[in-house]
TrEMBL record:
Coiled coil: none annotated. It holds the Pfam family PALP. This is Threonine synthase. The lineage of its organism: Archaea, Methanobacteriati, Methanobacteriota, Stenosarchaea group, Halobacteria. One of its GO terms (biological process) is threonine biosynthetic process. Residues 321-330 have a biased composition (Basic and acidic residues). It comes from Natronococcus pandeyae.
Amino acid sequence: MGEGETPTAALNSVAPTAFGKLESLNPTASFKDRGSSVIASSVVDESTPYEGIVVASTGNTATSVAAYAARARIACAVLVPQGTGTAKLSQVAAHGVSVFAVDGTFSDCFSLADTVAEDDGLVNATAIYSANPYVAAANRSVAFEIVARLGEAPDWVTVPVGAGPLLGGTHRGFEELAEAGLVKQVPKMVCVQAHGCHPIVRAFETGASVEPWDEPITTEVGAIADPLRGYSEDGDRTLASVRESGGVALALDDETVFEWQTRLASVDGVYAEPASAASVAAINACESIEPSDSVVALVTGHGLKEPAETDVAPTPVAGADEVRDTLLGE
Ligand SMILES: *Cc1c(COP(=O)(O)O)cnc(C)c1O
């Protein structure tokens, strides 16, 4: 459907050397389409035993897999945590797949999806490394496209992270380009999590391996609130990419993330969902990034999925002069 080949746009308000990779402009408005197109192809491929798809998601994977399943005419069941935003769910339902609400977190949805996929005819399309090999592999194309656009790998890439196959896949893509002699450096990868659920950042800071997040999840930034319960080794794979690249993992509070969602929309014209604004906020928050360093933030999903809480009440107006004065400042 035209997934990938998304724009890499300058974010001049952030820094003269900052760019946003606008994954929000994929067919279902998030980067998840890269993995979903490969998963759907794997089911259609007659050399695999698959006949249907089950997927756990906080929203964007559900929408994406549902769209590609519809297009490939594959049976698809979606498991979401109770309380998932209705904007995302109505998009899922429009694709005509079965949606089930699970009383629990994303981790509980994943564990149920894994049990369902014990039947060989079903593939678990959940967007984490432990579920299937396709998703992280598909995300390598993000690196290929950034280099095609910029001519070289940037110094840094900032990535919002739940379990992290986007960060790990993108890092792998850069490594493959370096191994092929096509780029001189592999960027330092920045893992960005929400403070209200940051198991990977916590392990980065303590030097330990990743432990599941057992405290309450206190962030509203849904797309990256993954406690990694039952598959914390996925977090270790992501952390390994961060460490090997010489990168950083950092947590941001919700207030900062929402502030940048609005700022990005009002200053750069880019409407991103909160998780995606987090990667841009990280350029500002990460002290290791020098002002002259080149950096690409992955703007992972569109703002229409989780709209900013801006004041939308229009000002009542009597005539043209008032409007004109506002525009021309008289
Ligand atoms: C899935 C998702 C993420 C997190 O990516 P992972 O690689 O799965 O951790 C970030 N932002 C958005 C908008 C997402 O949908």
